[in-house]
Amino acid sequence: MATLLRDTTPIQFVPPTIEDMTRPRGEMASQALIDDVYWRVSIRHASAALVEVCKTESYTVLTHKNIIMSGNPMLHSYIYLCNPIGDIQSVLNARAVEPHATAKTCVCIEKYGNVTKRVQRKYPFSLKYISSQTFASRTRVVRTAEEACTWLHAIDIVESIWD
Q1: Which residue, 52, 47, 163, is CA-closest to 113?
Q2: Per-residue pLDDT tens over the stretch 10-25
Q3: Distance (Å, rounded) from C-alpha 97 to C-alpha 59?
Q4: Is 163 inside any structural domain?
Q5: Which of 139, 148, 153, 160 could anchor a disulfide with 123, C-beta 3.0 to 4.6 Å?
Q6: In which domain, by residue range, is 140 found?
Q7: Domain count of the chain?
Q8: What is the pLDDT at residue 158?
């Protein structure tokens, strides 16, 4: 008989505010944590809760800064996309590998909390991450301006450097 693990931890969604940029950056999840089956279940539980948020709100990207689990802020570097890009809905430990000198640039209109601004971004670049569905390391080459805007904005939020 198989045992099904379920997490019933209360998840609270915290709407994004510009004050999130003063909070600590997301911690990179260690391999030991990624290998922990109970932690994996909690990450999937958080993702399931954010599905409902995206159905009722008009967000593009949510991060660990928007999640309270059992009364405690989520600490680990986590990005959830309300509109999946390809087969990617949510990731851990995301980072962009800088483009080469031949990179193109684009201007992104980015919003977080009540702040909107124009940011110049470079692409293509390699996105390195851990899938929060399979918990395997992945690399994706980001080739479009739209996708570059989404990923680089999300990474800046997680890193607390979007200002």
Answers
A1: 163
A2: 899 999 999 999 999 9
A3: 25
A4: no
A5: 148
A6: 11-158
A7: 1
A8: 97
In a domain, 5, yes or no: no
123 touches 99 (CB < 8 A): yes
For residue 49, the domain's CATH number is: 3.90.45.10
Would strands 137-142 and 125-131 be described as parallel, antiparallel, or unpaired?
Answer: antiparallel
Q: For tokens 């290998």, name the residue.
A: 35
User: In DSSP terms, which residues pair with 31 in a beta bridge?
Assistant: none
In sequence order, the β-bridge partners of residue 118 are: 109
Q: What is the pLDDT of residue 7?
A: 66
Is residue 2, in this structure, part of any structural domain at all?
no
Residue 4 lies in a domain: no
> Does 1 score more than 60 pLDDT?
no
Mean pLDDT score of the chain: 92
User: Which residue is it, tokens 């890009």?
Assistant: 85
**pTM of this prediction?**
0.92
